[in-house]
Each structure stands twice: as C-alpha cells, then as structure tokens.
Specification:
With 251 residues, this protein is α/β, with parallel strands linked by helices. The protein has a single domain (3-149, 174-198, 240-250), classed as 3-Layer(aba) Sandwich (Rossmann fold), CATH 3.40.50.150. It is built from nine helices and seven strands; from the N terminus they run H-H-E-H-E-H-E-E-H-E-H-H-E-H-H-E. The protein has helices at residues 3-14, 25-42, 60-65, 79-85, 124-136, 151-163, 180-187, 200-214, 222-231; strands at residues 50-54, 71-76, 93-97, 109-115, 138-149, 191-198, 243-250. The protein has a seven-stranded mixed β-sheet. Strand 2, helix 4 and strand 3 form a beta-alpha-beta unit. The protein starts with a helix and ends with a strand.
Length: 251
C-alpha cells in the first residue's frame, strides 16, 4: 500500500466515533500498571516533574500517569480522541493536538511515554524521525517509557500458535510494527536502556492456551489469565507477543 494512503487510512481509523484504543481491557490494565511501576522505580518522582504522553488517545491511561507528575500533557493527532480526552482534563493535566509528522514537540519534559503510538506512523523512515523528535523533548537524565509493538515478538507468538494448530494472527491494517533491533540501535544514540518488560505470560495464555482450550469462548478467560500472569509471570523475557516496554534514560 502506498505510504500516503496508509497514513490517511490510519488517521481515518482514529477519527471514527466507534474506535477503541485497545479492546483487550485486561492487557490495557497490564500496560498501565507496568508503566506506572517503571515510573515509580526509575523516574525522579517530585513536585516539579513534567510528563508528556504521546498518542494519548482518549486520555484514559494518561490520567493515571499524571498522578506521578506536577504537570502533564497528553498529545494526539485525532480530534475524535482529544474530544473524549478533554473530559479528563484537570489543573494538572491538559490535552493538546500534535501531529508529529509535520510538527515538533513543544516544550521539554522529565518523563515521556509512548504507548502503541509509533506503530501508527506508516513506515520506519517516518517512525524513526518521530522517535528522534520525542527524544529531543526529553531533558538530560530524563526518561522515555516506550511501549510499542515489535515484529519479532509478534512472529514468535504466531510461531507458538502454529505449533498447536491455531490460525496465524494478522497485524492490524493501520499499524506498522517496529523492528526491535533497529529501534534499539536508534534509541542508543540518545538513551541508555535501564529495563525491558514484555507481556509474554499473558500473551501466551490468552492467545495460545485459552483459544486452544476454549475456542470461541477464549476471551471469557482473559481476566483469570491476567490475574495469573500478574501473580506468576513465568514467561517474562520470552518475547512472546508484540508489546514490549523499553525503559530508557536520556544520556
């Protein structure tokens, strides 16, 4: 598909009134909790911490992250999403339109977050440019919590599904998953990696074990599988599933 057409289709996707950021609410909960845990473990939580959330969508997640900063801003290019997010605005949290394809990041921040945002930017040449724009907005010694989707983890998940006779999953039409090694090479120019977290246990349980056992009723088991993976994350680091949280410190 032509890149301009893909970018247009992606924007149209996020302007649809029925669109959801992530249908799997249990996975969304795990993502939020993982980012917050990393924020608390690594960032200098203080009364004057400035935080930015890129691709904030409807602001649901941003409202939780903002509790750990004195001021927070959620950026998004979807007017539909920002309209929903505006209902969550407060004295400490604002939402602002930003199209990184044509604009630079306003301001600088102690901590920045991207969560399944870069994958909506069409192709690597554009994605890498936008990552660099975000990097410039992080203060020296600041933090970048980058939770994105990677081809290697996605292929690994499909390999496990294939072993038990489950059909392969398809990458969403509006996404372009990142190459893990290529992304780390780019990030190493400005950042040091301090922690990497994947969600292998949850992905294996919900995308392999549950559908193998329960078929069409597999989604009914998601909450129990979340509780299991949170209490005994036995496959952490196995890189099963597309999502990976990379925690970085600015050099």
């Amino acid at each position: 598909m032509d890149i301009n057409n893909k970018l247009q289709l992606t924007k149209e996707h996020w302007e649809t009134s029925q669109v959801e950021s992530l249908k799997d609410v249990n996975l969304r909960s795990i993502e939020i909790n993982s980012i917050i845990a990393s924020l608390k473990a690594h960032a200098n939580i203080s009364s004057d911490m400035m935080l930015a959330d890129f691709g904030c969508g409807d602001g649901f997640d941003t409202q939780y992250f903002s509790k750990y900063a004195s001021e927070s801003v959620g950026f998004d290019y979807s007017h539909e999403m920002l309209s929903r997010a505006s209902q969550r605005q407060s004295d400490k949290l604002i939402f602002q339109h930003l199209d990184l394809l044509s604009e630079d990041v306003p301001g600088t921040y102690d901590a920045v977050i991207s969560k399944r945002f870069i994958i909506n930017l069409g192709e690597w040449s554009i994605q890498s440019e936008c990552i660099n724009k975000i990097a410039k907005a992080v203060l020296p010694g600041g933090f970048f919590f980058m939770l994105e989707c990677y081809k290697q983890g996605f292929d690994n998940l499909n390999s496990h599904r294939n072993k038990v006779g489950l059909p392969l999953l398809a990458e969403p039409y509006h996404n372009t998953y990142l190459d893990y090694d290529e992304t780390l090479e780019l990030l190493s120019e400005d950042f040091s990696v301090i922690e990497v977290i994947d969600f292998s246990t949850y992905f294996y349980l919900t995308r392999c074990l549950s559908p193998y056992i329960a078929g069409e009723k597999a989604f009914d088991l998601d909450e129990k599988m979340r509780l299991f993976s949170e209490s005994d994350d036995i496959l952490q680091g196995s890189r099963i599933g597309p999502q990976t949280l990379i925690c970085l410190r600015k050099k």
